[in-house]
Amino acid sequence: MTAAEERANERAFWTQGSRQHSSSSERVLPSPASPMSVAHELVADCYRVGSDMILRHWRGDFYHYQDGVWVEVEERSIRKQVYDYLESALYEKGGSLVPWNPTTGKVNNVLDSLRAKVYLGRDIEAPNWLEESSATIPAEGAVVVSNGVLHVPSRRLVAHTPAFWAHNRLPFPYIEQAPTPSRWLAFLAELWGRRTYPASGFDELDTLQEVLGYFIGGDTRQQKIILLVGPKRSGKGTIARVLTGLLGKHNVAAPTLASLGTNFGLQAMVTRPLAIISDARLSSRADPSIVVERLLSVSGEDSMTVDRKYRDPWTGRLPTRFLILTNELPKLADSSGALAGRLVLLTLTRSFFGQENPRLTDELLEEAPAILNWALEGLDRLNRRGYFVMPASSEDIVRQMEDLASPVGAFIRSRCEVGPDFLIPVDELWKSWRDWCQDQNLHPGTKALLGRDLKAAVPTIHHARPRTEDDKRLQVYNGIRLARETTSGHGDRPDQASTEDVGIGQDGQADQPVFSAEENGVQEEVF
How far apart are CA 90 and CA 96, in angstroms? Predict the structure, then answer.
């Protein structure tokens, strides 16, 4: 939460709180010796609307209900309101009314009781109904808009209520009969050259429509990261600004790729549904492995402990989806290929440098209710299918991303074959790997690193030590061999001599009499 957002929340919080308890300047409260009873009165006077509490303590922080959603409030704001509430209060002592006289100790006791009074279990996830009796629509698929709570699958709209636990609200209304977003569609046609909408086949606009619906709908089960790749002034930033306007600035985090690897890099994402990374370059000081680990953990819906500056750590599942904007493909080391498998990639090729329209974002956001309906149509299509479909134009870029992330994976595709009966001596594969790295201008690393990355890229590959005919052991990789075209046409190959020595057939498969586990004591090692 930014400083400006905190001040705005505090102003709204104090305006509401002061209205609720200003009518009684000299209230009679229970004794300071009964802080839980005092907290009960405090909640009744300040933090309740009808039968609903409007203050909750969840995962170590206070949350206040405001404009249809629950927003975080700093404890110092609650503390100040408690002081103000108690300042002119009285309590009975020895048959007389005496000033309550709040002190640090007394206020701490009341605050501790207040936390218990408004406590909300940490297993509660947003969006959710706090009481089943209040549920008028299913919580799953519900989105808060400025004129109510919208159940996306049915398009049913119900009134805002504190009984609905949600942190994010779209800053515009749902209008069922909103017109087609013609300016938005014309903008997208400029980016990708589409003549009319809709058209046959599946292209970038279809994918983007589903992506916007995915971000707006709040569902993280697709476990995808969206990557927009294109030259400068190609529309990436405009799409990101429109998305920010649709979700609301306070609902969007703006980390850098490098900041994800720092101690407090995830702090801003605790309740935010979207993080837009506008520059995918990594500094030399950043640890790419930590960045990849956190991208995978957040997108994979893992429960995480998030360090927060000057505050207790927060533990839970982050609701955040990532949108990454980049002029060039980021190089993020990931031998397993897991990160590339998480990507939904859209490419832009046309640059509008020198033709910028400074009012374009404002013009597009004038159609926000119509863009919402357009995006929800994409979400409906995505939910029916169950998975994203990328346009054909992205396939080559995805492969490039895989190769950048896992050079060993690229080497396997280029020079090797994988199969359960294949064997190759470790030294032979190591030599081929070094030669390939020299061709690609890459550093080969060490044998141990190659073995680790092979296992990450193809988990079925394992390390074995079969006996040779002279009763010696030779280190081999089981499950991989050099491709035939890689080893053919070179006369006396190094692999010919080694395979004859250890009993590997000319097709790269094991000669069973030599490698029988029972007769020859094959030993296997897992990386």
Answer: 10
What pLDDT does 431 receive? 95
Cβ-in-10-Å burial (0-12, 13-18, 19+) of 395 comes to: exposed
Q: DSSP letters along 434-480, please?
A: HHHHHHHT-----HHHHHHHHHHH-TT-EEEE-B-TTS-B--EEEEE
Residue 188 contacts residue 208 (beta carbons within 8 Å) = yes
pTM over 0.85: no
Distance CA 156, CA 139 (A): 12
In whole angstroms, what is the distance from residue 190 CA to residue 213 CA? 21
CATH 1.20.120.1730 fits 203-394, yes or no: no
Q: What is the pLDDT of residue 514?
A: 35
Task: Average the pLDDT over 102-116 and give the result.
Answer: 98
The tokens describing 138, both together, are: 């299913």
Q: What is the CATH number of domain 406-482?
A: 1.10.10.10
Is the CA virtual torsion 112, 118, 123, 127 positive or negative? negative
Cβ atoms 478, 463 nearer than 8 A? yes
- 198 pLDDT higher than 70: no
**What mean pLDDT comes out for the span 22-38?**
84
Angle among Cα 438, 441, 444 to the nearest 5 degrees reads 60
- Per residue in 261-293, pLDDT (tens digit) is 899 999 999 999 999 999 777 766 778 889 999
> What separation in angstroms does the CA of 306 have from each of 120, 291, 317?
19, 14, 10
What is the reported pLDDT for 32? Answer: 97
| Helical spans, DSSP H, in 337-406 | 338-342, 360-365, 368-385, 395-405
Domain with CATH 3.40.50.300 in the chain: 203-394
> Concatenated DSSP letters for 28-56?
B---TT-HHHHHHHHHHHHSEETTEE-EE
Token duo for residue 21? 């308890």
How many Cβ atoms sit within 10 Å of the Cβ of residue 233?
A: 16
Indicate if the pLDDT at residue 202 is higher than 70.
Answer: no
Summarised one tens digit per residue, pLDDT across range 293-350 is 999 999 999 999 999 998 999 999 999 999 999 988 877 777 777 888 899 999 888 8
Give the separation between CA 68 and CA 162, rounded to whole angstroms. 7
- Let me know: does 416 contact 480? Beta carbons within 8 Å: yes
The stretch 191-213 carries a mean pLDDT of 76
Domain with CATH 1.10.10.10 in the chain: 406-482
Q: Which amino acid is at 77?
A: S
Cβ proximity of 14 and 95 under 8 Å: no
pLDDT, residue 525, reads 41
End-to-end alpha carbon distance in the chain: 43
